[in-house]
Amino acid sequence: MHICMICQDFPPVARGAGWYAYNLSKKLIEKGHKVTVFTRGSWKKAYYEEVDGISIYRVRFVPLYPFHLQLHGFFINKLIKAMESTFDVIHLHNPLVPTIHTSLPTILTEHGTVKGGIARREALDLFSIGLKSFAKIYTSIEQKLVNSADKITAVSKSCADELKGYYGVNDVDVVYNGVDTHFFVPNKMKNQNNPYILYTGSLDALKGLFDLVRAAKYICRDHQNVKFILAGKGPLEKNLKRLVHSLDLDRNISFVGYINQERLLEYYQEASIFVHPSYHEGLPTTILEAVSCGIPVVATAVAGTSEVITDGETGYLVPPKDPDKLATAILSLLNDKELRERMGKNASEHVKRNFDWDIIAKKFEELYINTIK
Predict the structure, then answer these.
(1) b vs e for 56-67, b when ≥16 Cβ sit within 10 Å of the residue's Cβ?
(2) Model confidence at 191, in pLDDT bands (50, 70, 90)?
(3) Rounded CA gap, 363 and 357, in Å?
(4) Which phi and psi angles does 103 have, rounded to 5°?
């Protein structure tokens, strides 16, 4: 079978949906299938490359907002027309992918609806302001994607509920986000001398990072030497650094930027606690990676996240936009090594049973076969 994947971005630099497409592609290739990916390239030119057996077309992308999706779709559809006869099925990963024109069977995977994300996003940066300003355009594109798909999957039950509530879609298969549990493994020789609290992901308005910084100020009153590491890039980086400096937390909070998978694994393995204070999620990859490494999680009780973390068993869930409760939960784990170890072990075992990529890939293989019929 030859699968064409379409996604907004793709490794080496990617967000959740891009990594999802990458890991799924690798597993499908292991099973003997062929995978071609169409994703965003530069505005100057398109180019082709092959990574880990995956054929990747980085298609011309012109950042002329809010019409970038339509323009990108023009180039994507030209390529589909030229290659359509070689594919068996097309698999789109939303959010922010263009609508396509094809006679082939199509599967749409929702990683968190655009409409839901816009509704919960604060206008703290130009990207967020742009999304909110042109919400009707983006939700119209999402509606067309939903209407044209032969099969729709969602990465969480809550994401499936959003599709039903916003677009009236009842027939949605929940196929969870996955994690490579053979790569993201606990470090049995963890260094406990310099504990730190870790966040990985985008530094944007949807992630609640100002709440984390304010919680850190409270935590550092009792633990003056505790460290927070924020790994990732995003439009709010400068604003976050200004807040860190104004609260006199420069020695406690480090911004390490984007890091590759090998270095990311090391950060996970040596962390004491993983924190994820987001306002909206489909099902966060970073939480799966962290708990696969045996780290307890403190996260906000938002849709998607609550399907991975069981409060009091594999971590703590707190209300979004509440720095005080976020700080209290972090302190509970920071002050109790035995509790951290127990929760981390519970979380790791839960992920292995339910979210390993072998399980996810098998489900998609069955969906492709049934959709092609």
Answers:
(1) bbbbbbbeeeee
(2) low
(3) 10
(4) -95, -5
